[in-house]
User: Fold these one by one.
Assistant:
Number 1:
Amino acid sequence: MGTARKLFRLFKSFNEYVKIQTIRKGKLPDFEKNLQILARLAFLCYWFFDNLAVLVKVKFLTSFELKQMSRRAAKCWLAGIWLSILVALIELYKASTKQSQLLLSKAN
C-alpha cells in the first residue's frame, strides 16, 4: 500500500522545476535568489532519487540499489531543509529590521 501511494509522487520533481523558474523571474537580491534556488534544487534531487527508489522497489529498475537511492534522497532532503531554514531566517531578519525601522520612524 505504501509503495502504491509513492507512485503518485513520481513526477513531483517537475513542480520543483516550475518553482525554480518562478524564483528566477522574481525580484529578490542575488544572494537570496541563489539560496532559494539551491534549496529547490536540493528538493528536486530528493524527488529524483526518491522516484528512483520507488522504481527500484517495484522492480521496474534493476540496475540501482534501493538503499543507495534512499540514502541519496535523504541527504538531498536534509540539504533542502537546512537551506530552507536559512532562507526563512534571512526573511525573518529582514522583516524584523523593517519593523524596527517603522517603529523608529513613528517615534520621531
Number 2:
Amino acid sequence: MSEKILKEKRTSQFMWAEKYRPKTLDMFIGSESVKAKIQSFIDQQDIPHLLFYGPAGGGKTSLAKLLVKHLPCDFLYINASDERTIDTIREKIVGFAATVSFKPLRVIILDEADYLPALSQAALRIVMETYSVHSRFILTCNYIERMTQPIVSRCGGGIKIEPPKQEEVACLLASILENEGVKYTDEEIEFIVNSYHPDVRKIINFAQQNVERGKLSIEVSNYIETDFKEKLLSLLKTPRKPGVFGEIRQLVADASFSNYDELYRFLFDKVDEYAKGKEAQVIIELADAVYQSSLVFEKEITLVAALQKLLKTIA
C-alpha cells in the first residue's frame, strides 16, 4: 500500500482525500474478506444490487467507485443526502436506468442512501425490480437500520465495511505526507489517527488542513482537546467514585473547551464504553443536551448539567 502511494505523482488536485482515493483493490485498506468478494465481482464482470454500510469515512464510497471502474458499465453517481426526493428517483434514476447503452451494464451509485425517506425508498425498490436485467444499484449508508427491509433484502442483506486498523491508517497517512513532501513526526501522526479514527477521510483532511510551509503543524489546543476527551471518558467510567462530579466540573473549567457539538458526538460514539446496559437512556439525554445547547449562550452550564445527568443514569 505505502509503496503504491509513494509512487503517486504529485498533481494539481488539491483535496488529498480525492487525490489518494484508491484506484485498485491493492490500494484499498480494509477487510481482506470484503476485498476478496469485490475481486470476485470484478472477475465475473457483473454484480448484484449491493449495499455497503459502516462508519463514515471507512471506505464505502471509495469501494463503490473503484468497483465501477473495473466493470463494463456506464454509471451514475448521486448523493442521496442532497437529492432525496421521489422526483430524483423518477427523473434522474429511471431516466438513466432506462437508457439504451452500448455497455452491458448500467450502475447507479446512491451514496448516503440512509438519507432517503421511506417513500423514496419504496419508489427505489420498484425501480430496482423493474430495471434489474441491465441496471444495478450500489447503495452506501452509515446506518443500515434506516434502510427499509425490502431494499436490504434486494441487496443480499448488505456488506459491512469495517474501518481499517489504526496501524494501517497511520502508514497510509505517513505515505501521503511523504509523497507531498511534508515533514512530520510519529507523535503527530499518532495524535491525528487516535483523534479521528475510524474516519479515514477526516484524518486525511485534518492533516492537510494543518500543513504550514511544508511541515505538519498541529495547534497545542488540539492536543488539549483530545486529552480532555480521554480524561472525561475515564471519569465517566467511574460514576460511583466519590467526588467524581467535582472532578468533571474542574476538568471542564480547566479545558476551556469550545467545540461542544463535537464533544456530544464523542460522547455518543463512546456510549458503549461508559454506559453498558444504559445506552438507550444516555442517548436520549445526549439528544436533549444537544438541543438545549443550541438554544443557549452559556453552553458550558448545559454541558455540566448534562454530564451530571449522565452520571446519575449510569451509576
Number 3:
Amino acid sequence: MSRFRCHIFICQNERAADDPRGCCRSRGAAEVIDRFKSEVHRLKLRREVRVNKAGCIDQCAKGVSMVVYPEAVWYGRVTPEDVDEIIESHIVGGTPVERLRTDRR
C-alpha cells in the first residue's frame, strides 16, 4: 500500500439539534468533504493526498472543523468555498491558510 504525503481529516460528527455546542454536520461538513474529494480527484492528487471523514475532533464550536497531517494544522469554520484556497495554498503550496487556522489562537 502506498503512503500518502498528506491526510485531511474533516469532522462529520452529528449532535442533536438542541445541543448548545452544535456540530460540524449541521454546519455543512458533508458539503466540505464532498468538495475536498472532488477537487483532490480533479487535480489528480488522489495518490498523495487522502481525504478522510472523521468523527468528533472536539472542536464543535469552531465547526466545520478539520485537521491536516502530518503538519497538524487545524482549521475551523471551513465552508465549501474555502476548499480551493486550502488546497492551492496549503496542500499544493505548503502555506497554511492563516485566516482559518484554529491551532494558533
Number 4:
Amino acid sequence: LYQCHEGYKLKIHAFVLMGNHFHLLCQTPDANLSEVMHFFLRTTALSIREQSIEKCPLWCRYKWSLISSPAHYYQVYRYIYQNPLRASLV
C-alpha cells in the first residue's frame, strides 16, 4: 500500500485484511484505480506466493464503487472496520 501511495498517489482512508479478502477505502486523484489495483494485486500475490508453501491463486478479482455522499462515505468506513468484528476475528 505504501508503494501504491508513493507511486500512484493513492490516498488510503481505510484498510482491513481479512482471512480471504481485504477492504480498501481509497481515493485516486489521477483516476488510475485500475492501474493501482493491478499493481497492488500483482505485487502482493507474488510476494505472498514466494513465502507460501501452497501455490494457489491469491486474488481473483476486485469490486469497486464510487462514494456518492458524506453519509455514504461514513457508512462504508464503518462497514470496513466492523467487518472483522462481525466475522469474530477480533
